[in-house]
Queue: 2 jobs
Job 1
Amino acid sequence: MKPAPFRYVRARSVDDALEWLAREPGAKVLAGGQSLVPLLNMRLARPDVVVDINGLEGELAGIRPEEGRIRVGALTRHWRLETDPVLLEQCPLVPEAERLVGHAAIRSRGTMGGSLAHADPAAELPVVFRLLDGTAVVRSLRGRREIPADRFFQGYYTTDLAPDELLTEIVLPSRSAGQGWAIVERAARHGDFAWALAAALVTVDGDGRIRTARLALGGVADRPVRLFAVEEALGGERLKAARDAVRELVPRAVDPPDDVHAPAAFRRHLAGVLAEQVIAAAVHRAQGMDPTKER
Amino acid sequence: MDDRIPIVLAVNGETVRADVEPRLLLADFLRDRLGLTGTHLGCEQGVCGACTVLLDGRPVRSCLMLAASADGATVVTVEGLAPPGQLHPLQEAFREAHALQCGFCTPGFLVTAVHLLRENPRPTRPEIREALSGNLCRCTGYQNIVNAVERAGRLMAGLGTTDD
């Protein structure tokens, strides 16, 4: 299968790309292409114009630490994010998630911005973005705006981005002292799209009790979900009680779809199992222990 | 929609100039325009890995790149892994370990494994399996492919094979 014909333009600058998006309502941005080109090949997408932004790494790629946060250029490739020393130090959940993204060849071209803009509900970076309450910086000829993570994803492969808007930057919080984190997924093979994935962020007091907890799941709905009720229930609990709570509450808190890859009951069960694993791993990490240690 | 895009790129060490239709995939450019048919198309979705080539030193799915996007790039295909008439140690290892049958997936495995061994010269078997998880084979059952990569890694690191 080959793409239907389209016009191809190479953006010479971000402003140039924005001009094209404003002028051509049928235009699609081509970044890493790891999600768009399969759609073109299968003719599920038939844009009139493809705006190639791969030449804009100078403006749109890079990892910049600031006070309490990190600004990631939308065009930064997965493989860079996997090994970047700033992220490993200040936002280690991202490199850990990147190891789960597709395969090496996908990570060579794919970008963080593309992953968020494509909004596959079983993708890793959208779950991390939602867990961390990141901010998406978006530009168009009409101006610049910021979209918080809880408004960014609107449904299956649907975001708050308007057709003339370009995601330019993602802002993520730096980790604070004593935070533990973890991400885990299950798929048929390493690198496949996940049946379900879970990510957690916790802080633990000196007594071993959870002080704060965040829990996000992917693959169980039309977008990444935060389980706020479960997060609240974990406050003040020690690990064993927390695991019991997660095992009981999470399957009841999700309503996953039935599809050709997995039945709903399986995803529901898997959500509980993975949520328990990430809470335990995050707590171990927060306590300075090996996160893979079973207790 | 008939506008051709001029591109200049290096393929297996040679400079190539061409005018390409916007929708021409890099894989089809390599195969049909340059006659480098070692790169294979198995799925055109990026999942099977048979189309994998090295672009600027990294493995990429040539079925998911437009030739137009490859302007200015350095591409190495399976044909470029070793000088003409010679075999890369990985290719030797694949032959010795009977790591191919029909050979359709093989170029993709070789390119992916070349990159693996550059990044991780002595991978463990689980590491090999994980690195090759993006390449599908319908014939061999993968065991001999893992053996071949392990064997080549040891040879390239000067360690000798386990049957020495």
Note: Chain A touches chain B through 31 residues (CB under 8 Å).
Job 2
Amino acid sequence: MESTISKSDAQRKVDQIQAFQQELDELQKNQILNLSQDQLHKIQTYHQKITAKLTNDFDVDTSQGTKNLTLGMQITSFLGAIALAASVFFLFYQYWGYFNTQVQVAILVSAPLTTLFATFAIREKESTGHFSKLMALISFACFVLNLSMLGQIFNITPSDNALAVWCAYALVLAYALDIRLLLAVAIACFYAFIAARVGEWCGSYWLSMGEHPETFILPALILFIIPSLFSHHRYHNFESIYRVLALCGLFLAILIMSHWGRSSFLPWDSDVIEGFYQVLGFVLTAGFIALGIKKIWPAVVNTANVFFVLFLYTKFYDWWWDWLPKYLFFFLIGISAVLFLLIFNRLRNQLRQRVFKEDIV
Amino acid sequence: MKKRLFLAALSLILLSNAVVLGKVAFNRAAVLNELVLTEREMQSRYSSVKENSSTQLQLRWHTPMQPSTNYYYGYQNILPINDNQREMLGFKPLNCQQGSYRYNDNETTAWVLMELDGQAYLNDLSLLESRIKEAQAENKNRQETKSLEEQLKRLREYDSRLYAIAVSAEPGQLLPAIKNKEKQFLLKAIISDSKYCNNEIFIKQLSMGDLYLPKSLITNTTGLPRNYFVHIAIGNLGEAWIENITPR
């Protein structure tokens, strides 16, 4: 039977137990609280059982040292996966010209299949998940190579359907193995596919999707509401990935449109369009900051903050760069940064109070 | 749950490959058209990945020179149209000063009539010859005359003789113009409206671009011969492939 808690919950529980033990020691040392030996023994035994079970089921870190090592392993795993995926690409490019068509097709089809089987086989055997995640990334790279190279070998007209298939594959692997990087890749493919399709419906060639940033707005909004519609409690930080990438897509599109009104689908003058998107950028960033504070979504608050500052600084540049002396321009930027620090500090206190109230309740 | 996701991933790989290979099989089940091009029209493509061991041939083509334009080096992509064609292609009428720059990104798919070594090629040769004569008669500087002579030499000996000569929204409208099936054929293309407020379109991309050359077709141990014929087949789905390559 699959567990109903995620690795994040398990790690939080272990950290909570350690914090409790440390605080208990402090209270006893300062003679604020005195528990009997029997009570202490019962608490310790109970906590040891929980910690052992969580370590066994989720491979959580029980000290700062192991946490640092885990972080190192994650970074190494990520870099290793990128390097191995690149190696697969270049290996194929190096030798594919020497094989006949049948051998090429056989290699291309079997590569993602073999790596898929290997991924799940490794997952059954290991507890950390690092090796299976690495293999999953390689499997995804093999699948991308599979379809793109078949297209080259058989001179197939490029189609945006490949993006949908790659998105689906990355998504399946992400959810099967709790891999945030593959979720991010799936979201990137999703953006590209929806933008290409909307662009096609509006009369553009699908490979020109980047010429109409507005086509990224709809997929961004869809991505933002997905974690609210479907619970991702069992997955480590998937909700934040969805929301942050959704906001990045949305605000980048608005930022570009606020300076490039000509590429809009709206039937207005380009100056009016740019003005509209500039106002929309400020309104939406402020709105998402407020929403993030209300819902206690720190990632949303931070992302919206960054883009609010970006929108503001691009406006400062538009207004003042040409006619203010440079020292004064940068001085004003610096002063505004100090002002933002004060505002962010206030927002942080508000967020902290909300979290505190939620904990009490 | 993990087992279901594993089966979903497996199905995705198998299904997508089945669809792609099925499409290829259907396309190659029948040959709707056959072309014979030379190394002038299908040139070996340089790969940015230096370890790339495969060979791809790139289709080189252009549109007829215009009497008013000076530019020529084999890669012109502009085709004049009339108001009727503009409307049928779905582009807006021209409401601007002729020749002035205007931003537009209107694109659409259309059909283009291609002609190999035909009247368009002969017209371009004549146009260059008459320009050279004019330059010599007007005693233009030696540099300009030399440049025109170089252009003529390139067109006679090296550059592609494949021209895009007509465009239409529907292939049926271009079929009556095909007099010689071995030298004229239709291709799908992505076209865009002109950025210079002229009654012309810009051919962005043809459906037949780079073609993969299977190693088995290169019988010469030193690689592609210097001069060669490329035998191309176009199948049920309008997708092309190289059937054979022979030295000439």
Note: Chain A is about 80% helix and 0% strand.
